Every structure is written in structure tokens, then in C-alpha cells.
Amino acid sequence: MAIKLQTLLNHAKEKRGSGMNPVVNETILEVVKLAYEAGIFVQITAGYRSFR
Fold first, then answer.
1. Which of 3, 8, 11, 12 has the fewest CB neighbours in a 10 Å radius?
2. What pTM did the predictor assign?
3. Helix H or strand E encompassing 14
């Protein structure tokens, strides 16, 4: 059973954190969408890491 695109996008939104650059945030979602269209299921497992 294939995972749904919306599930991957929701997971990416949860994992990317709130401190990222907005351009990076949008790029992450675009990469997930393009990979999905190519039959590749991408999950974001970690997001923003501060210098601390």
C-alpha cells in the first residue's frame, strides 16, 4: 500500500520546525511533491537545528 501525498506533506510540516527560512520551507514541500510524482516516498525526519 502506497502512502498518500498529503500524509507525507503533513509529516514534513510537523518535522521541519518553526525557525527555518520560508524559502527553505516551501522548497521542502516542493521536493516531497516532486519525489512523490516520481514514485519516491520522502519523509522528513528532522528539521531546523539551532546553533545551540
1. 3
2. 0.73
3. helix 5-15
SS3 category, 20:
coil
User: Scanning the structure block, which residue is given the C-alpha cell 510540516?
Assistant: 13
Q: How far is CA 51 from CA 46, 47, 48, in A?
A: 15, 13, 10
Closest CA to 15 of 38, 39, 48, 41: 48
Distance CA 13, CA 29 (A): 8
- For the stretch 4-51, pLDDT in tens is 999 988 888 877 666 778 888 888 899 999 999 999 998 877 666 677
* 3-state class (DSSP) for residue 27: helix
